[in-house]
Structure formats: structure tokens, C-alpha cells
Amino acid sequence: MTVHTALSRRSFIVGSAAAGGLSLGLRLPLTAEAAAAARQPEVNAWVVVKPDDTVVIRIARSEMGQGALTGLAQLVAEELQCDWSKVTTEYPTPGENLARDRVWGSFSTGGSRGIRESHDYVRKGGAAARQMLVAAAAEQWGVPAAECTAAKSVITHAASGRSTTYGRVAEAAARQPVPTDVPLRDPKDWTIAGQPLPRLDTADKLTGKQVYGTDLTMPGLLNAAIKACPVFGGRLASFDAAAVAKMPGVRKVVKVDDTAVAVVADTWWRAKTALDALPIVWDEGPNTDVSSASIADTLRKGFDADDAFVGTAAGDAKTALAAAGARIVTADYAYPYQNHATMEPMNATALFTPRRCEVWVPTQNGEASLAAAAEAAGLPIGRCEVHKIHLGGGFGRRGNFQDYVRQAVSIAKELPGTPVKLIWSREEDMLHGAYHPTTQCRMTGALDAQGNLTALHMRISGQSILAAVRPEGMQGGKDPVVFQGLNGGGAEGAFAYTVPDLLIDHAMRNPPVPPGFWRGVNLNQNTFYVESFMDELAHAAGQDPLAFRRKLMARHPRHLAVLEAVAERIGWQTKPPEGVHRGLAQIMGFGSYVAAAAEVSVTGGKLKIHRIVAATDAGHVVNPAQVERQVEGSFVYGLSAALHGECTVKGGRMEQENFDSYDVLRLAEMPAVETIIMPSGGFWGGVGEPTIAVAAPAVLNAVFAATGKRIRDLPLKNHKLA
Amino acid sequence: MARLTINAAVREVDADPDTPLLWVLREQVGLTGTKYGCGIAACGACTVHIDGVATRACALPISALGPEQAIVTIEGLSPDGSHPLQQAWLALDVPQCGYCQAGMLMAAASLLAQNPSPTDADIDAEITNICRCGTYNRVRAAIKQAAAGGAAQRG
Ligand code: FES
Ligand code: FES
């Protein structure tokens, strides 16, 4: 394998495009090669049909394990009515997208948006291509297009008994006018979309053939290992390059920005070995006193602070909770920092010359990578190109944050004409995360004499992701994403419970630890807080947790439907087996309604999760088999965080540097998961993230049922159950 | 120069003796199917077989190996992806991102070679590899499917 075969013609496009001096938003005449590729079999931007009827579907979003590649191809193929067995896929490059007026739309792959945000235009892409193919055949036959039908890549004119294939008319189809009226097929007539089809990208993942970013090679490639100041906000003071210059394979020691130093060598192992031997002096900066304890203290003070942003409110919760006679239940919760810990560490390969810069990178957002590359290269964006590679896990780490791209380009700039592959060690990955933010929450509820919840104040205190990474999304100082799952309405999570006096607010406290979008984002801790506390309230009221919730959910039938579904399947109304205890949780987020029920036992202080039932209403389902995998995977991610995961701060830096101290769920702990997919239609919800949020509260509510111990801060490993 | 027998071929490699086998495979022999995940034998992404036994290659210096030891990587598990485990993995569509899967397959192949009908407890004990995408239940099911189909005959 060399990069040229692995990465196709696209590697070369930027070289010629560079001369055009493209800048953002300008249309650039296609390069000769791109034009040739476009001319040959492209029907439109989404669909290429080759003479042998092979269909290439262009996928703008990234494949990181979640199955978007297959799902998006299904949506295009459904409208195209092509032969699924002849479908292959390719990524257009971010540079091509810019050169073609962003014909493929956004490349961003996060927030469980891959399908829910692009289903309309990708389906239209497939439908328009089908119309053009049919029109081309009809024109050749001299018959009205309306008399022709298309199925499985074959166009038929029944009246004259003629038929042809997509491959034969593809070239003529490309010359057809682009249709303006593009009706879409009704999801209930779907034959390719909506089906549990196997993934398109499995075979190479079983033989070692799949090329990840860390595997890239190309002629003359050098490898880089990097260390940035481990203390947040610190800088690189100095290093002694001479001390390692003569070590085997070492080519160069490079200062990277003001914060990091990299060793470039013939192999990565030699680069890392020399880096470990390199004397480095850090200027640790202003945060060396910051610790988990100091952060927790700051957050706790936010419970009583007046400077809170209101997320959702009804009535007057504060007055109601202060009123005499109300029975008050209150509890404080906390959620720690987490690292994404993708199995493939951060990496990027860059090739810089003074005229152009190319980057090969596993990225959740190719356009963000391109912007980062251009900025680091100091070149116009049109002289840069990014080649996307399948990701060895993303989970939010590889979208907004393009630190590794910037670093790779900075290093490559020191070695013009030489491709440099930067791979972070696991330690670097653990020390320089974009961490799941830390928050605390004080829940205060009032129960009336009948045990009804009449008032609720949910005070979140803690970190805002947007304030740190996307300040343009802030609304007058407020971070709306903090309230995921707690909103008055909307796709990002309507709060299920109708409480007469309700206040959900946020005291923003931002410690100097970089936060990021971590699979599930703020839905994770919000669901842990709300669903644990609902359980607490139910027990305080002496009511069954399902019945207690049900009374408050009448206005949210979809929320209730998934909750009822898991309760029924787990056998909520029947007695569990001896020693087994159950817990429930529900939430809405990322456009979908989800719920989970767990069965656990605790013996000698040891937790065993026997069984999980999970329900998802995502509106429409493009591939139920992949939804099942996302739901199962969500429990691995969610339970890793609930049981084991925690990044602690000491001396202004993370204490955990590898999987020995940052443990995650392994196979032996994995419960059986039964998935109920119950699409109610009429909307498009995401499935990669929401279920993560119900994993912890469902299990921990069951732990309470088993032990009487209420776990109010994660992870569980910090608590004794015996 | 070290002499190593990798996927039934003897290779001369020019590497410092303390270089872990993982990096020799990836960077000197060009077998990149074996993955780096942690470097401290904690995740299993780098699992290969040494004389049939699943071994984490990231923490094993090549100085500990001689040409008489048979090293098998994912590329050598079968010539064409036809090992019963690979077939079961394909039938159950196990991988998500796939990064951990070579290590999973190699760990599972070693388990089946030694224990043709593993129980759930055997699988729990032997398959300690990390998968962050969450393929564990399908890994378990695929191991059982391959075992039921007679993976053992292939050793
Ligand atoms: S890379 Fe060897 S066990 Fe993780
Ligand atoms: S399939 Fe992605 S880490 Fe296992």
C-alpha cells in the first residue's frame, strides 16, 4: 500500500488548484483532473455512475464507526433506485466543496447530526440523479420520461419493451437539465433506506487492510512525536535539542507554537524515544494551584450565587419552595471530567511547501481541518487541501478541535517538501483532551400532601463548552447548550415533566481546563441529575418511580411512550428474580426520545449489571441494525463514565495518563442489551448520542433499589456499595 | 539486525533491540493492521500471536524474540479473510470504527485455538481488549458463532 493508491487522484488536485488562488466562497474553475473526473461519469455532485453500473455515492460526513457512511448511502440509493450491491462510496474533499460552492453542504459530523441534518438534500441528490438518468434514456428512445420506470439501476419503457442500465446513459444524463421539482419517496415505501443492511465498510476492518491516519505512509515520510506543556495554560520555556540530536533516526527537534516541542525522526518509535529523552523546561503558567478540590469548591459556591442564567422556567419556583408547609427534598450532584479516549490517538499527516499545504487526517469536520491547516500554513485556503480518512473513533474530539492538524502543519513547515506524520502518544491524548465539562447540580423539589411534585429548582453550576470553544453560539452571555434535555421545547431536548413552579438555571463557572463536546455532551450530566432526582422524589413520596413520573408526563406522550416501552419489556410490574433490582430513566435529546431500564445485583459490594432494555424513538430510522449498534455502544460509553471514568486535576494538570489509571468498561462488565426501536414518524432524530445519557441513571437507580445507597457523584468506583 | 519470523516469512529488521515488536511490525515491516492504543499493554489493540499465544506487541522488545518464534499478525490470520472468526465477524457485522478489531480478532483466535468451546466466563476472562465504540456484545456473539462452526479445527 502506498498513499497514492490508498488516497486516489484527490491527492493531486490541490497542486494544480493552488495556482487559482482560491479564497473562501470564490468559485474556482475545476482543475483539469477534477474536471475530467467530473465529466466522465458524474451525474450530479452526489452520484457517479460508471459504465459498468458501479454507483459511487459521495458522502460529505465522516465515518467514525457510527455507520453514517452506510446510512447516508442508503438514503441516496433509495431515491436513486440503484442496485445496492453495486454501491461504493467516496469522500469529496473539503477543498472541492469550497471550489463547488459547498455543493455537499456541511462536512461537520457531530451532535448526532450526520443524518438528521442532511437527509433532505442527500435524498434530493439521489432523486435528481434518477430523474436525469431516466430523462436521458427517454430522450434516446424518443418517449416521454413519464412513461419510463427505474429500479435496481435499470430503466424500462414498458410500452415499447425497451430497457437500459444507468451505466449506459450516465454520460448523457449528466448533460440533462437539473430538475427543479424533486419529489421524494414516502418513507413507508422505502426498500433500501429503513432496512437493516450490513455496513459497507466492514470487510477491510477484519484483515488489517483498512488504512487509518496512523497507518499512512508515503515516499519520504517522517514521523513526529510531540509534548505540549502538561499544565493547562502553561508554555514551553526551553529545550536542549543537542542532547538528542544524535539519537538514532532523529532528523529535527521543532518548537511548535509557544506550547509544545516535537521530535521528527525516521520512525515514530525513534521520535518518541528521543522526545522522552529530551530535556524540556516548562513555564507552567498561572494554574499550578488548580486541583479537582479547588474546582469542586468553586462550583459548589455557584449553588447560592445570584448570577445565574435561566434556561427553563414556569410559575415561581423560588417562592413556592420557600413557602411554609411544603415538604422539601434536596440533593447535590456532581459530574467529573472525562476524556474521549478514542482508540486511535490524535494524528495528522501534513505536506507543506511554500506554495501549498496538504493534510491527511481522520476528522469529524473536514472543513474545520482545512481552515486550521490554512491558518497554520499561513497560506490562502485555496492553496490547502484536506484528505479525510475513516476515524478510529471520534466521539466529539475530532470536530471542533483541530489542535493536532495545526501542530502537524507547524512541524511540516519546518521541513518543506517532506510529509510529516504526527501521532500523539496515549499520554499526550490523555493530558490534552477537550474534556467532558464538569458541573455540579443542586436539586430542590417540593412535594404536596399527596406526594405530587409541585415545585422544582434545578441549579446547575459549572462549565460552559460554548464559552470556551464556540463563543459565537452564546446568547447574551448564556450558553444555551448547557440546558440540553431541559428545554421548554425544541429538538435538543424538551423537559418531560410538567411542574407548576419550575426553575432550571445555570451559574457559569469556567475552570481553566479546556472543555469539549464529548459524545452525549451536556445531556449526560443533566439526565443523571434529573432522572436520579426523580427517583429520589418518588421514593420520598413513597411512590413507584414509574407511576410518579407518569403523573408528570401527560403532556409529553413521546417521552412517556419510550419509558413505558422499557418498563413493560423489563417486566416492571412483575417481581424481579431474587437479588435482582431495577431502575429506570428517560430523556429527550439530539432530536430523539430514549429510555432505559436496568436490572442489577450487588453482591459483597460488587455490582453486576445483568440486563438493559433501551428504547429509541428517532422519528425515522434509516438503518435499524446500525441504530442497535449505536444503542449498544452508548451503554459502553455511558457506563464507562458512570463506573470508571474520571479525569482528576492536580497541579493544574490531569493526573490520568493512560488506560491503567483511566479505566473503561471491558467485555466482562458488558450487560446484555435489548433494543426497542419505535420510530413514530414525522421527524428525524439522532441516535449516536442520546442513549448514553440514560445509561448512568438507569443503572444507578437500580443500585439504589439494591442497596439503598444513592450515588450522587460519578464514577461509581469512588463509592463503596457494601 | 534481528531475524524475526512474521506470518511465516523470515524478516531481517534493522531496529534498536529495545524497540517494541509493535513498531517494528508497523514501521519496518509495513504491517500496519496491528494497532497502537496505549503502549503499556493495557488495551489489546496491538495483539498478535507468538507461537499461537495472544501477546501484546507494544510492550515486547524485539530483543526478547528469536527467529524460531512464529509471529502472526492480523494480516497473517488467514490468507483471504476466511478464518472462521473473520467470517463470523463479517456475518454479524461486528466492527464499528474498527480500530480495535484486529486486536480483538487476534485475542479471540488465540482463545479458540486453546479452548474450542469457550464459556461466557472464558470469554470474559480472555477478551480484555478495549473497544470504545462498544462492540463487546457482538464480539462475544461472533466468538460463539465461530466456535459453534468449528473454528477449532483450524487451530
Ligand atoms: S497498544 Fe498494546 S496493549 Fe495497548
Ligand atoms: S470498533 Fe471502534 S474501538 Fe472498537
How would you name the CATH homologous superfamily of the largest domain in chain B?
Beta-grasp domain
Q: C-alpha Rg of chain B, in Å? A: 15 Å
What structural category do the secondary elements of chain A indicate? Answer: alpha+beta
Compute the number of structural domains of chain B: 2
Number of helices in the DSSP assignment of chain B: 5
Strand content of chain A: 15-25%
CATH architecture of the largest domain in chain A: 2-Layer Sandwich
Uncertain ranges of chain A:
1-33
Helix proportion range of chain B: 25-40%
| Parts with pLDDT < 50 across at least 5 consecutive residues of chain B | 151-155
The class by helix and strand makeup of chain B works out as alpha+beta
Give the helix level of chain A as a range of percent. Answer: 25-40%
CATH class annotation of the largest domain in chain A: Alpha Beta
CATH topology of the largest domain in chain B: Ubiquitin-like (UB roll)
CATH topology of the largest domain in chain A: Aldehyde Oxidoreductase, domain 4
Q: What overall geometry of chain A do the principal axes of the alpha carbons give?
A: globular
Give the mean pLDDT of chain A.
Answer: 92
Structural domain tally of chain A: 3
CATH class of the largest domain in chain B: Alpha Beta
Biggest interface, and residues per chain? A-B, 63 and 57 residues
What is the arithmetic mean of pLDDT of chain B? 95
